[in-house]
Design brief:
189 residues; alpha+beta; Glutaredoxin; two-stranded antiparallel sheet; 29% helix; 21% strand; globular
Length: 189
């Protein structure tokens, strides 16, 4: 049986480090957002849904910044593919990381797919790539929110993420899904 890890709310986020298209190395541990770092994992250049999804993110970056949320979009794509995506998808302001290591993706609970050929976007899928995920990480580098998909469809919509972020900040809403061993919690009742 395969071991599959997942991130847990209120627990330390796994290490995360990627190269960015602006020429630097982005490390989660080095981030200092006012409220959250939002890590958006996209499938890669081959994914037409990712194009629309990151386009929507581009339009909402200022709204996230107003809420104290720093944003990075990253994938397991190569630098060349990430540059092509940034250019063709007209992403001027989204910080983009590339080369997400698949072992790191697994540590984040992301699903990995095998490429199945050419997509409707006209680009070949890589041999292996990470499926989408969205994470909100607190300044203390603990997980607040996590959503992972096995498919490119039905991702959290950024308008809803904005609304939810505003709500949780106004009400100091705690991270949920934090129970590690439900049998101990049930025994205590």
């Amino acid at each position: 049986m395969n071991q599959f890890s997942h991130v847990m709310p209120r627990q330390a986020a796994p290490e995360l480090s990627v190269q960015t298209l602006d020429g630097g190395t982005w490390r989660l541990a080095d981030q200092a957002p006012e409220n959250f770092t939002m890590v958006v994992v996209y499938r890669g250049l081959h994914c037409p849904i990712c194009s629309r999804y990151l386009g929507d993110l581009e339009r909402k970056l200022a709204d996230f910044a107003e809420l104290g949320v720093d944003v990075i979009a990253l994938s397991s794509d190569t630098e060349e593919r990430a540059r092509t995506a940034k250019s063709e998808w007209k992403l001027e302001n989204v910080k983009m990381g590339y080369g997400l290591d698949l072992d790191t993706a697994r540590n984040w609970g992301l699903y990995i797919s095998e490429g199945i050929g050419m997509t409707s976007s006209g680009f070949e899928e890589p041999a292996l790539f990470a499926e989408p995920g969205l994470f909100l990480v607190r300044p203390d580098v603990t997980i607040y929110f996590a959503s992972v998909q096995t498919m490119p469809f039905a991702r959290p919509q950024f308008a809803e993420v904005l609304g939810a972020t505003k709500f949780v900040l106004e009400r100091e809403y705690p991270a949920r899904g934090e129970v590690v061993d439900h049998t101990v919690a049930q025994a205590a009742e």
